[in-house]
Structures are given as C-alpha cells and as structure tokens.
Specification:
This is Transposase. The chain starts with a helix and ends with a helix. Strands 1-2 form a two-stranded antiparallel ribbon. The longest helix has 15 residues. The chain folds into three domains: about 50 residues; about 25 residues, no CATH class; about 35 residues, no CATH class. Helices cover about 55% and strands about 10% of the residues. The chain has six helices and two strands. The chain is mainly α and about 120 residues long.
C-alpha cells in the first residue's frame, strides 16, 4: 500500500526526472512499478485541496484607526509589525526536507534566491 507521502515523493521524482525529458506519467508509473490508477486517484484527491485565494484588502482593526490619526510614520511601523507571515514546506526527491515558518515576503525572496544558486 502506498502512503500519501510515498506518492508525493513519487510525483516529485516524476517532475524532476521524467517530465523534463518528455516521458509520460503512465510510462513512468509502469517503469517504477506504481499502479497508475492508484496514483491518478491520489493526484485527483489531493490537488483539489489547494485553492487559489485572492485578497482584495486588509481589514482595519481599532488600533489602525488610532494610527491613522497619529501620522504616516507610525502607520508604516504598524504595517510591518502586522504583516502577512509565510510558512513553506519543501520536500525534494533526494530526501531533503526544508521547512521555514514566520517568513516575511522579503525573507521568502532571499530564500528562493539562495535555493536558485544551489540548482
């Protein structure tokens, strides 16, 4: 029986090794003795869990209302304290697992730039 993690690793392996060379997923499954129907069902079930989200604005709380009255310098300081934080989890086919929490957008950009140099 294949676990979800096994199939996730297999899919990543396919993307990095076979897809770039034009090999079909079905032939990759046969070559690696993974039943295509099991993989296909897992893929269909798991890919529907991720949905694209579009945010049109940020809700204003009572503290921000007070800051609007105090001036733009304090407003900028407040925005950086309450900014969106990012959590990434990357698994690579060679077994490497990267997980980083509490990243700002700038931290994420720096991390991706460092990872690009490794590839």
């Amino acid at each position: 029986m294949y676990s979800s993690e096994d199939l996730e690793r297999f899919y990543f392996q396919y993307q990095t090794e076979a897809f770039t060379h034009g090999e079909s997923l079905q032939s990759f499954c046969i070559k690696n003795k993974v039943p295509y129907n099991i993989f296909q069902k897992w893929y269909k079930d798991t890919r529907n869990k991720v949905v694209e989200v579009k945010v049109d604005g940020v809700p204003i709380d009572a503290d921000e209302e007070d800051l609007k009255l105090k001036g733009p310098v304090q407003q900028a300081a407040r925005r950086t304290d309450n900014s969106v934080r990012i959590w990434i989890d990357i698994r690579i086919s060679n077994g490497l697992h990267l997980s980083q929490k509490n990243l700002s957008y700038q931290d994420l950009v720096r991390m991706v730039e460092k990872l690009e140099r490794l590839c």
